[in-house]
Write a structure and sequence with these properties.
Layout: E1 9-12, H1 18-29, E2 33-38, H2 41-55, E3 60-64, H3 70-84, E4 89-92, H4 107-132, E5 139-145, H5 156-176, E6 181-187, H6 193-202, H7 209-217, H8 230-240, E7 252-255
Parallel strand pairs: 1-2, 1-4, 2-3, 4-5, 5-6, 6-7
Helix pairs in contact: 1-2, 1-8, 3-4, 4-5
């Protein structure tokens, strides 16, 4: 199926590794023009090199920017406008989790987590909505966690913040309709650099990384018996953000291997 992404322009925040990098690569392969950002210069340079080697440099912009900093996100939006002129798809992907229970989460940790999760969305939306309004079929895809709908006590702070982000994006779907579509995906455990680094220290002698990851998935009782892969998430993002999903807005797609317990 042709998703209709050829010649479109996309922005992917947190595009230097994992899901963001896989999404940027898939969108470039579909013929889209892609701008990525990240806050670590070394990882940004590595991601740029990887994407350029695979897809060439003509359709790629890579900018150092922090989603929690309004100034850098506005500068990133201006760079995208200068380079591509318009924007068709915004993928709000940047973010990470915090391990903590309520009793050991300080006020500073709460503020830091809420700042990252909420203002990472708010600054990015404010910066790019004007460009999206210039598109004939604009879309936003928010990458969120299953914690937003199924909180875990060992991640109480992140769970609460993720739930707030889910509510925010649902509200935006109504406010920006009918011009801009807004959808979200909520993720279970996805393979990442963090898991690969854990394998280096925790894997058994002679054990492959794939076998070790399957072993780690067992106690989590995932029906599909494994962790997800970044490219599997990327395919869902590409679909929801494409003209092929033109009648879908305000929706949430779970990508968790079936681990959720709610109906």
């Amino acid at each position: 199926m042709d998703l209709g992404l050829f010649g479109k322009t996309a922005v992917v925040t947190g595009g230097t590794a994992g899901i963001g990098l896989a999404t940027a690569s898939l969108l470039l392969a579909e013929g889209a023009r892609v701008a990525i950002c990240g806050r670590n210069a070394e990882r940004l340079a590595s991601a740029r090199t990887e994407l350029e080697e695979a897809h060439g440099s003509g359709n790629l912009v890579a900018e150092l920017a922090d989603v929690t900093n309004a100034g850098t996100m506005n500068a990133f939006a201006h760079r995208v406008a200068r380079s591509f002129g318009t924007l068709d798809l915004l993928v709000n992907n940047a973010g990470e989790g915090r391990l903590s229970k309520f009793a050991d989460t300080t006020d500073e940790a709460w503020r830091a987590e809420l700042e990252q999760k909420f203002f990472g969305q708010i600054h990015t939306l404010r910066a790019f909505i004007p460009l999206l309004r210039m598109s004939g079929a604009p879309a936003i895809v928010g990458v969120n966690s299953l914690l937003a709908l199924q909180p875990e006590p060992h991640m109480v702070c992140t769970s609460a913040a993720r739930a707030g982000v889910q509510s925010l994006l649902k509200s935006m779907a109504g406010e920006l309709a009918p011009q801009i579509r807004v959808n979200t995906i909520v993720l279970g455990v996805i393979e990442s650099g963090q898991w690969h680094r854990r394998f280096e220290t925790m894997g058994k002698p002679g054990q492959s990384r794939d076998d070790w990851l399957v072993e780690q998935a067992k106690p989590r009782h995932i029906p599909l018996a494994r962790f997800g892969k970044p490219e599997e998430v990327a395919r869902a993002v590409a679909f929801l953000g494409s003209p092929a999903a033109s009648y879908i807005t305000g929706a949430t797609l779970e990508i968790s291997g079936g681990v959720s317990r709610f109906i």
